[in-house]
């Protein structure tokens, strides 16, 4: 099981790099060429979502991406550091220096609508997708089947 890990600051300009790396690693893992555009789009959407969450919650931790080649599948996990619903933001390091979390504003509620739209797009692109959220942050796990090729360049 080969794994490539990326960590990047929550800046929109880094999403393109994550998409390019994901497509290259997926191709190497044996994902069908016809599916590579879906991989690129899904990774771009997941990374953009993570960047947006980090920026809207004032989190400076990097966004993480793990690309894993398994025996018959290729998976990608995009992680953010934004605590899930009901989690105490002070425990995860989110919020200001006093430990108080950011106030809930109308703009944050709008961001949730964009978040749901991003998840809908990912679900439309990827058959096997899982979204998890906890006190330490959230993870979107996506996977695609690989060819049973025994010889790879």
Q: Strand count, sense and closure of the main sheet?
A: 5 strands, antiparallel
Shape: globular
**What's the helix count?**
4
Number of strands: 5
What is the percent of helical residues? Answer: 25-40%
Query: Strand arrangement, largest sheet?
Result: 1-2-3-5-4
Q: Give the SSE order as H and E letters.
A: EHHEEHHEE
Class from secondary-structure proportions: alpha+beta
Would you give an account of this structure?
Strands 1-2-3-5-4 form a five-stranded antiparallel sheet, covered by helices on one side. It has 153 residues and is α+β, with helices and mostly antiparallel strands. Helix content is 40%, strand content 24%. Mean pLDDT is 82; it is low at 89-110. The longest helix is centred in the first third of the chain and has 22 residues, at 36-57. A hairpin with a 2-residue loop joins β4 (128-134) and β5. The chain is globular and about 45 Å long. α1 (15-29) runs antiparallel to α2 and α2 packs antiparallel against α4.
Quick gist of this model?
The chain has helices spanning 15-29, 36-57, 89-92, 106-125, and strands spanning 2-8, 63-69, 73-79, 128-134, 137-145.
